[in-house]
Amino acid sequence: MLLRDVCIFFSKPSPFGYAPQFFGGVGFPEPGTKERKVLDEIGGKNGATAYQVALNWILRHEGVITIPKAKNINHIKSNLKALELTLSKEDQQLIDSFFPKTNEGLSLIKY
Length: 111
Description:
The model is unreliable at about 10-15 and about 105-110 (pLDDT under 50). This protein has helices at about 20-25, 35-45, 50-60, 75-80, 90-100. By secondary structure, the chain is mainly alpha-helical. The longest helix is centred in the middle third of the chain and has 13 residues, at about 35-45.
């Protein structure tokens, strides 16, 4: 039996950028890094920020729940815009290549 089969939700508070299973435990990519450039370029094509692209990409993974930072109304509005994005298959694959999942998948126990 898998954890997801019993519908138990575990939560660990963390800022939006810290998703070790996607960003290697180092937080959201800093401006100027190759990873951030990929998110910025995809965002530029779609009229979105790097954070909106990342949020959209994370939400498409089955069984993943994310709680993005929502410190104020502007954060909430920005987060909602991420749901309006339709990333191309090519863009999704490009992001996947820069932010691969671990061999273990997305184990909450590991993190």
